[in-house]
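Pair request: fold both.
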Amino acid sequence: MDASEIVFDADSATQTLSSPIATLRLEATNIRRERTGIHARVCVYSGGNITYDQFNLDRREDRLRLTKDAWGKEGDLVKVAVPLLDLGRAVDIFCAAIFRDWEASQYTGEYVTGMKRAPGNRFLLRPYCLRDGGTIFFAPGGSGKSWLFVLMALSIQHGLKLFPVNQTDIYLVNLERSADSLKHRVAVAKDVLGLSADAGLYMLNARGQSLSHLTPSIRHGLSKLRNPHLMVDSLSRSGAGSMVADDTSNAIIDTLSQLSPGWSVIGHTPRPAPGQQADHVYGSVMFENGEDIGVQLASERRGNTLGISLTVRKVNDGPFPPVAYYMLSFSEPDENGESDLNGFRTSSAREFPELASLGTKNVAERLKDYAEAEGRINPSGAAKDLDANRGYINSLLRGPDYQPDGPPDKDSKQWYIRRFPS
């Protein structure tokens, strides 16, 4: 039995086995590394027969069971041409090659002399959505972020100049709301933006599904588009586990980056203290470490209008832009009590003074004020009082602006004080 060379793709591998009597094809899809090893869905195709299973490729028992099931479906002639032992050996070699070569085939080192970006080509929507990088927009629920997300997506998809954009395809993954709800919002937003009836968005509606389970479907959808930018609503519905666990946040960021070089997602915030806006996304500090740009969205409602401010809290490469203000207006409720978006434009701090005064200080600035007021502080107490991420507070306290105030106390708490220039 002759075996062809194994052909690897991003998350798949295929090989053809040939004899004078029969031709079989081995295929592994959704190949991924998990905590216990490399897993995949392995299929054996032969004529009209197909046998498949999903398992850890390192498990001999699973490979043997798949082989026996596939061989048992064959006719007597094929069983003579391809003995069970030969098929089992071929499946073992196929799975072993995935172990040996699949990860190595994904990336290749190269000698790089550098290449400058074309001017004005870094952003798809300046200064928030990157062509090659990840952005997290975060805000409390009900603050207008999903409406803004749809307006931004349509602007990038159709090259509208309400925002400074570079036009490209958008692939919007909706984990947050029903398909009908999002389709309605797209239709309403199109009217507000003056788009034609046939204008739209590429989207995947999968409310209640997890990002990890949808990875093959998302990758397939992205592959059909031209230089697509991935947008996900929302991070909180990714279904990967506890959002405060570092492993969960790292897995989500890695999944997004593997799917698309450029992505933007919506996140929620922890419950803020009265009169404040939480200035970080809910969950592990690894979300902040993994994003290239972090954008805090705050809102203020006045009658049928909603003022929105966008404050960049983190940027990896470049200056911090000024706070931007926008206004969404809504119709009067109809006889069913329903109201829809009917206007969107840029705004200013003068139109929404309360909005302008919220969240004007980031965590680092608030920590300095807190340390000056308290005298000596510890990470857990500061994180609780400021409603901030403890890991991030810890990293700030270990920085140049603070110094330990003696050794840890009897409760193993390390106390810190402000370090002032001498």
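--- second member of the pair ---
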Amino acid sequence: MLLYSMSGFGIGCADFIVAVYLLKYYTDHVALSASLAGVALMIGKLLDGVSDPIMGFISDRTRTRWGRRRPWFMVGAAPFALSFIAMFSAEPGWSQLQLFLWLLSWNVLFWSAQTVINVPHAALAGEMVEQHDERNAIMGWREGMQQLGLLVGASAPLLVLGSLQDAAVDGALARGLSEQAAQAVGFAARGEAHGVMAWQFASLVFVGVLLAFLGTREPSRPRTPPRESIFGDFADTFRSPPFRLFIVVFLFEQIASGLSATLVLYTIRDWWQFAGRHEMFLIMVYLLAAVASIPIWVRVGRRMEKVQIFAIGSFISAATLLGATLVPLFGLGLAYAGLIGSGFGVGARAVMAMSTMPDIIDDDEERTHTRKDGAYFGVWNLTRKLARAVTIGGAGLGLSLWGYQEGALEQPESAIRGIMWMFSII
């Protein structure tokens, strides 16, 4: 289970960095307008979305000596790492059109490569184990390692970027530059440091996927064959009443999670006005709470229904997001408490959502007499990407409409109000 979940660790790192740092990198360091950056990321997600059910269809029918799921891990690993590096390697001197096209093209490849890895990887879990508690356990491992990847993806970039920025500021001061000029030099160095950070994490992602490939084996027991038509597979998923309900709830859950993740740095820096070490510690506390909660929720899952645990996690997260509006009044302590509570809610939703999928697929197999894990997880990944497209595009357009100033050290009151509405209320 540990080696199987290593792919989730690497992808979790990359996903968090893209969700949290990419938009701010383009708006603050290479000066692409927030609206164009949001549109590029949204279009990239939408164009890539069609690959998810196709990838599920293909992996259901793949036949190799290494199985039908595992070979795709390695097919997607190199493009995934390469596109991740490229997205953080834009040049500040490029025109708005050049920056837009660069971000759009590499973003499409990034999410397409992630699909090639993630859809077969998720489908494999339901085939490796069949019992209720075992599925909770393996999905707990998968989501736990992914949350750990999110933790590393949250904290390590801040350390890398911060250390290089501080070194540049110290060097500028030593050369006799004024404090203001030295801070400007440090800010520019922080932008350039994203390329260094991208190389480090791309290597980590590749190693994680490689370990998942080497450390797993696909079961040899016979499986009910899938349909011969991709349209039949796709239609069957939406003929399943449990899946229709699941996918609607999952869509709204992903929109809420994605919007808060995309805006968390804007919230901490621009709205709450916390900087320095608190910026890193707040994100780390949130993710540590999510990781720590997962074994607790797995144990609770032995005594409660999955839907009940999912509802509890959703209520906790919603309450803490609303509580975020009070942080400017009550200070840093409430920020830490709220993010700890939100992390516990995320842990419950992540484990129970993933653990429910194999149960839905079993129900479909009894109804249709065909087995199509890949198709179901393809639609699942498509829904996740559509939600991300809405949140990233919406966040970029929202920031622009509320008057966010790209590269400014202080934001107007209208931009702060917009961040508050999008992060907490919407």
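Observation on the second member. The mean pLDDT is 84.
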